[in-house]
Amino acid sequence: MTEIDTGNEQLNAEINQWLKWDKNEKTRLAIKTLTEENNYPELKKLLLQRMEFGTAGLRAKMGPGNSQMNDLTIIQTTQGMVKYCKGVLPQIATSGVVVGFDGRHNSHRWAKIVSTVFVNAGIPVYLFSKMCPTPYVAFSIRSLKAACGIMVTASHNPKDDNGYKVYWSNGAQ
Predict the structure, then answer these.
(1) Is the pLDDT of residue 1 over 50?
(2) I need a surface site. Which of 16, 29, 110, 149 has the fewest CB within 10 A?
(3) Which intervals hold domain Alpha-D-phosphohexomutase alpha/beta/alpha (predicted)?
(4) Per the residue annotation, which of 107, 143, 155, 169 is the catalytic one?
(5) Range with the lowest mean pLDDT among 79-93, 130-144, 149-163?
């Protein structure tokens, strides 16, 4: 892979890292195309800002880059959750995590990715087999005595958005 030179070291690093790490051809191609078009303002918007946890989790437009919901940001977010949870919830290794998803585009895919990251870290996962209403995750955490839960949904937000809601062992966001 040829190193990118936009004239901005930070942007160069983010583009190169994205193209190396993103395994989803659609979002990877979007960043590659923007780079080939020298669309640096859009690349800066997508890559130099990260989503931030708001009320109970993340929500953003689905698309390429660190500032949007996509396979790579879901993986990275979940890796961070695993690390954090292992530090503050030692029981997670036995009590596990509940993962749910709604009918939005990518929700089921991302719930499976979330589950895979937790399982690869040695944490049991209770993954819903079908889409479910958000309150089912909170209820299931308490019912199963799980350490926490994640619901992939953007609730009532625009159709191009998706989200990652986090619930604690008491079922609260």
Answers:
(1) no
(2) 29
(3) 51-173
(4) 155
(5) 149-163
